[in-house]
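Title: Prediction job returns without error message
Component: structure pipeline
Severity: low
Priority: P3
Assignee: unassigned

Description:
Job completed but the reporter wants confirmation the result is attached to the right record. Sequence as submitted:
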Amino acid sequence: MMKITSIIEVKSEIVETDNAVWPTYRRHSASNWEQLMGESWENEDSCEDIESAYQAYKNLTKPIHRMNILEEETLYVTPQKK
């Protein structure tokens, strides 16, 4: 029987886009993106465009911290165009 020797937690983000065919991506780092194609995650070879769009979106959203008696939560607000 195989024995587990260590576990490392890894953070990734699911990113939804307006791409009509395959809109869902998974970001592990700036140079490590995957695209969901059907039921399969495929490596994204050229990450520059999606990373640029990701950074632009992140710069538009600003975290707001709100304390609740029972829990703390972070809300992200995207400015509305006028």
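Comment from assignee: result matches the submitted record. The two ends are 62 Å apart (CA to CA).
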